[in-house]
Amino acid sequence: MPDLSKPVRVASKSVIEGCRKPYCERCGKKASGQPHHIRPRSLGGSDIKENLIQLCFDCHRQAHDGKILYTELALIAARREGLSLEEICEKIGWPAPEEVPELSSAPVPELSKYTLEELLQMYASLQESEDDTRWAKGAVCLVLTEGMGISSRKAASWLGCSASQVRELSKTFKTFPEEEMRVPFLSWRHHRIAAGTPDPQKWIIAAAENQWSTRQMEERIKIFYGKAKETDVFMAKAEKACLLAAEVFESGGKAADWLKEALILLLETHSRDAAQA
User: Max Cα separation, the chain?
Assistant: First the structure.
């Protein structure tokens, strides 16, 4: 029987607060603020103690820049929790390294020497830096257009992008100018979508609480403001699912067998839940 379970990111402010320490668990220096997520929240990391580690400002910055691999921090968490490195990596949902890392702040090696865990860490760092770059671009565009009175079209010609991009970057940054107003584990696109609504804070909070993807967020906004009917949205999904299912069944093989079992399981589960409701 196919496994249809979908891992859900655990969100817990109380656990985060419980993991706060006045010192850095890596270097021992004075530390403040919230603990660092070894597997970033933006990549599905949960608010569980095995995924949290208190870092000082310097170590925190190095971790976000990819200069400290997640496996090194996971090893520290493993020793703290009395678990093995493999057990910690299993709990946070990322692979354990073949060799136990050294507890050091050595820079990431050359590209040809990257391991699986290093590549995952690099991707996480690049994603975070990509969003950071968009916020910085938004600040620049806002200063150019509203601060200096330069038209979006003129600014775009200088910046090598479209006028609509300049307006979009400016509007998003203007809507969420302070980091405290943003949700760290949501993407720039989440914030951009929220900025295009009459109530940005409401929608960015809703997206965080419901863990919506950007597609789900856009659907909910369209339905709320009457730009789309909920029945039409789900009918479109049903039609698409039907077409995809037909394509799989036509191809036959293991995929078709798996899908058949999956659909039977879904129908049985739905019927059971409906009967219990």
Answer: 64
Nearby residues of 94 by Cβ (< 8 Å), 6 or more positions away: 39, 70, 74, 117, 120
Q: Do 218 and 205 contact (CB within 8 A), yes or no? A: no
Domain boundaries, the chain: 13-102, 127-230, 231-276
At 165-212, the pLDDT tens digits run 999 999 999 999 998 899 888 889 999 999 999 999 999 999 999 989
In terms of Cβ atoms closer than 10 Å to its own Cβ (0-12, 13-18, 19+), residue 254 is exposed
> Quick one: which of 63, 76, 68 has its CA closest to 104?
68
Unique residue bearing structure tokens 């307006």: 167
Question: Does the structure show a pLDDT above 90 at 138?
Answer: yes
